[in-house]
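Before drawing any conclusions, I looked closely at one protein, both as residues and as discrete backbone shape codes, quoted below without any editing:
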Amino acid sequence: MIYLDYAATTPISAEIAQKMLQFMTLEGCFANPASRSHMLGWQAEQAVEHARAQVADLIKADARELVWTSGATEANNLAILGLAAQFPQKRHLITSQIEHKAVLDPCKVLQQQGYQVTYLAPDAQGRIQTQQVLEALREDTLLVSLMYVNNELGSLNPIADISAHLASHPAHFHVDAAQAVGKFPLDLQALQGIDLLSISAHKMYGPKGVGALFVRRGLRLQAQMHGGGHERGMRSGTLATHQLVGMGEAAQLAHTCYQEDHAHAYRLRQTLLEILSDLHDWQVNGADENHQAPHIVSLTFAGIDAEALLMAVPELALSTGSACNSATLDPSYVLTAIGLTRQQALASIRLSMGRYTKVQEIQIAGEQLKAAVKRLRGS
């Protein structure tokens, strides 16, 4: 099996898994990090805080500005719902039509409570422009929530430019950076307009079930989970020491090798597209390479049913879009929002590559895809 679904989740290294194991068994430091009455609890807390510092260092933030969560979904919910509960007098939000469901669904919840939400339309490349955000701002705008990298297209939003314009505006800026952290350099000391930023461990070679929310110093959110007042009163619950240790180790590794990872992903992308270049009637969806994350490739093959194509290449682990929508047969709302027809959207697949993808694997995958498309077209 050739794994090409890194945007859905990434594997962790054996070294990180072994490090995590040291905080799970009786022989290791398995204690509750909130148990401050004995040495094992102190050691677990120390490991948690070391991991917090590792993640903070990756995004150039103060470790005290990180709130642990169960992943980016919870981080997004805490950012949006927690902010709305903290500032109930402002009842307007701005987001885009192609955000992850973990942003769109909390916005819908607030709409049901009487909030107004402006859904910005992406351009044909899947990007939101700064001017769109500025034109949508109102006096009662509480929050602008936009993703850094689109999880289906790989398109990059101009986050730094939007941040610069919002730095002097009272509206808060939340960035879903699940597909960006560990893959692009982030400096939240420089990006002062960003107040909230969501991180997922399992998108950057860490374990599933853990993430973090950056909360700019001075900003408070109303907790959405209650039961102990952990994480500065913003997120209660016993911390999963072993998962946090894994996330911290993954962050440290990403900090040292993201340039190498980026170059590797770009090479893989170019190899794939070159192999497919002699096919007819197909296209790459998303932005040009200057505004594109190289590890995500969205492809549309005219006249092909994407589900049939996936079945025709059983040795390739691919997807037809975001994992959060895999249970539905409806076309991707991301693809239709950028102008693809329903038929085109249903003829689209997503490949996502990563640190452990080999060039030879991409060559094999490209040839198998090309052969399958020709076979399904009867040519």
About this structure: The two ends are 26 Å apart (CA to CA). The chain has a mean pLDDT of 95.
